[in-house]
Write a structure and sequence with these properties.
With 675 residues, the chain is mainly beta. The chain has one domain (2-674): TonB-dependent receptor, beta-barrel domain (Maltoporin, Chain A), CATH 2.40.170.20. The protein is built from five helices and 40 strands. The protein has a 22-stranded antiparallel beta barrel. A five-stranded mixed β-sheet has the order 1-7-8-5-6. Strands 2-3-4 form a three-stranded antiparallel β-sheet, with no helix packed on it. β28 and β29 (526-530) form a beta hairpin. It is found in: Cell outer membrane. It holds the Pfam family TonB_dep_Rec_b-barrel. This is TonB-dependent receptor plug domain-containing protein. Residues 1-30 form the signal peptide. Belongs to the TonB-dependent receptor family.
């Protein structure tokens, strides 16, 4: 799959790559000098801004104990986060964060500090669910709005995956023909540090109950379906002193899933995300440090799904629909930290980015029985009609969004027990309205064990290319859109004792200028507009209890006092029993979700009574890790151990009783060797 990695690189990325290489010698010399100076002095960590510190950190030990194979599954064990299989595009994993579907563009994903979000879909669904946690050194999570530091999309959370730099191989096999292979290489030489990894996982996908898809004739005599997939990742990086050059690529394919309305074994999704980054950091003075990065990212998505089965065969065949889009992003960031003293520090910086949608179209087909001619019922987009079999090429175009951002924050340790951090960001957007974001955090240590925190923060989500410029048959873009805004007020209490600790956070969240589709007009079109506001109240709790030197209990609980977006879970949590027994590491992890009942009587086009009703759900996952010597690790894990057949509400499934089947039991075994 990676045979076309470099052959398909666009001209502007080649130019950028050449510029980076041409400057590498000069930068490397400067980096070496900066490295020598860095050894002489280091900024006090107490002076760093609180906005640089993640709220939660998963290290390798925690990742292994929870047994999560991908990023979204891991986040089930944080308060405020919940992961399910949804429809969105191709039945990918979906993430609910504080009662909102994060796939709509409220989440920033970074890999080694490089943002890979783009305005193509304005989300990270092509990447986040599938990042192999076997490749992660740790995962940093910043909760709540964080736009001051990270800008667009940092409205609900920011996740930064720090990749592992080591020498190891991993082989894994599991149910439904699941197979995974990973190889990683790391070397230190006099020419710098080199690291490389490649990973591939594939299989038939977990089992999903066919009874949850009652309208498709393609499910005759089937009690379950699979969703075959292939996920590939590749990374190569070079670091000399404080300078680093990195390339990363991932590709995903998924088939046989439930689309907006119907299931078909030939429903198909494929995506590619890649970036080239150029990073430099240094410390020219004992009180001053800086970081810069220049990165180029491009993404491409091809997706087609069955919308409606042909009604009069063989005169009418099935109707298919899906996007064929591509975009790229060029981004530059710079930040400087000045430590005035151990009590006061300032951070300021800027961001420039240009995003382009350079390909757009819709794969649509309503083919005659000979699969050659299309019937007059077909609709066209960009004057092209493309078959399902070959996808074809979308029309070339150039839709561009450019933005500039400036931010500054201060961290002030007012007394021995009081700390105040405050920041502001000014965002200048050249295709829609400008934005101002603020963030304030006050923390007071009540005693040696407990502390109290008050925070106000803001974030924003920019309109996507589709929301701004779409000319599709039913969905029309609106160039006058303004960014969505999220404001959050939080009050938190933390207590840390010798054998236990607890964190409790209550929050009020306000969404304004929500971007959504209006009702159909007389031309049966829907226009993207800034519509109603939404409020959310919630309580989040996390606690750990060390039972003895070998066993620990860890739990989370989230409860919303108001309705959530799209009738998501209002109460959910997790409870884990984690053990360290010599060479044996075990984790018994339980995910708990409240019941969901949605009454749509009178709201459907036929005014029929439609009720979605799902009982409370308890899912039990288990992981056993055994380390043989210093280098070999055996792992066995099982998800949904007691085969709970469950489903979740999805408002897009109008023909399928408004729900999507969730994965049944899945077990896997892996062997890794580190050298």
């Amino acid at each position: 799959m990676f045979s076309s990695v470099f052959s398909s690189v666009k001209p502007n990325s080649i130019i950028l790559f050449s510029l980076l290489i041409s400057q590498s010698s000069f930068i490397a010399q400067a980096a070496t000098k900066a490295q020598a100076e860095t050894k002489k002095a280091k900024i006090e960590t107490a002076s760093e801004s609180i906005f640089q510190q993640p709220d939660y950190v998963f290290d390798q030990q925690k990742i292994q104990s929870y047994g999560a194979s991908n990023l979204y599954s891991l986040l089930n064990y944080l308060p405020g986060f919940q992961n399910v299989i949804g429809e969105n595009v191709s039945a990918h994993s979906q993430l609910q964060v504080r009662g909102v579907n994060a796939e709509d563009g409220y989440l920033v994903l970074m890999i080694d500090g490089i943002q890979i979000n783009s305005l193509l879909f304005n989300d990270v669904q092509m990447s986040s669910p599938y990042f192999n946690l076997s490749l992660a050194e740790r995962v940093d999570v910043y909760t709540g709005p964080n736009a001051v530091k990270f800008g667009n999309n940092a409205a609900l959370a920011v996740i930064n995956v720090i990749t592992k730099k080591s020498n190891y191989v991993l082989l894994e096999a599991g149910q439904s023909e699941h197979k995974k292979g990973i190889a990683s290489l790391f070397r230190k030489t006099r020419f710098g540090q080199f690291s490389f990894f490649i990973a591939e996982s594939q299989g038939d996908g977990g089992k999903y109950s066919a009874s949850n898809i009652p309208t498709s004739s393609y499910l005759d005599d089937k009690d379950h379906i699979n969703q075959p997939y292939v996920h590939d990742q590749l990374s190569a990086s070079w670091q000399l002193g404080n300078y680093a050059l990195s390339y990363y690529e991932e590709q995903h394919e998924q088939n046989g899933f439930l689309s907006n309305q119907n299931y078909h074994p030939d429903n198909h999704f494929e995506s590619r995300t890649r970036f080239l980054s150029n990073q430099l950091h240094g410390q020219p003075h004992k009180k001053i440090s800086y970081k810069t990065d220049l990165s180029y990212t491009d993404q491409e998505v091809k997706y087609v799904g069955l919308v409606r089965e042909g009604g009069i065969r063989p005169f009418s065949e099935d109707y298919w629909f899906g996007p064929n889009w591509a975009s790229n992003k060029l981004e530059f960031n710079i930040s400087t930290l000045y430590a005035w003293s151990e009590w006061l520090s300032f951070e300021f910086g800027g961001q420039w980015q240009r995003q382009e949608q350079d390909k757009a179209g819709v794969i649509t087909s309503h083919l005659s029985p000979d699969l050659q001619n299309s019937l007059p019922l077909d609709r066209y987009h960009f004057d092209e009609l493309q078959s399902v079999s070959d996808f074809g090429q979308s029309s070339s175009l150039l839709q561009e969004i450019e933005s500039h951002g400036l931010f500054s924050n201060v961290n002030w340790k007012m007394t021995g027990v009081d700390t105040l951090s405050a920041g502001v960001r000014l965002e200048r957007n050249h295709s829609f309205s400008d934005d101002i974001s603020m963030q304030f955090n006050y923390k007071r240590s009540l005693n040696t064990n407990s502390s109290f925190t008050v925070e106000y923060s803001e974030g924003f989500r920019s309109p996507t290319f589709t929301e701004l410029f779409s000319k599709e048959l039913s969905y029309y873009g609106n160039p006058s859109l303004t960014p969505e805004k999220i404001r959050s007020f939080e009050v938190g209490y933390s207590y840390i004792a010798q054998t236990w600790n607890v964190d409790v956070t209550s929050f009020y969240q306000e969404q304004t200028d929500i971007i959504a589709l209006t009702d159909f007009d007389t031309g049966f079109r829907r226009l993207y507009s800034n519509l109603e506001d939404q409020e959310m109240f919630g309580i989040e709790t996390q606690a750990d209890y060390k039972m003895n030197q070998n066993w620990k209990l860890a739990g989370t609980l989230t409860h919303y006092l108001t309705d959530t977006e799209n009738n998501e879970f209002t109460t959910f949590g997790s409870l884990s029993l984690l053990g360290e027994l010599g060479r044996l590491n075990v984790g018994f992890n339980t995910i708990l979700r409240s019941g969901v009942e949605v009454d749509l009587s009178g709201e459907t086009s036929s005014n029929e009574q439609v009720v979605f009703d799902e009982n409370p759900t308890v899912l039990v996952n288990a992981i056993i890790n055994y380390k043989l010597g210093r280098s070999i690790l055996f792992s066995f894990k099982i998800e949904n151990a007691f085969e709970r057949d469950h489903k979740v509400y999805d408002s897009s499934q109008t023909l399928n009783q408004y729900y999507v089947a969730q994965q049944k039991q899945f077990a896997s075994f892996s062997l890794s060797y580190e050298f």
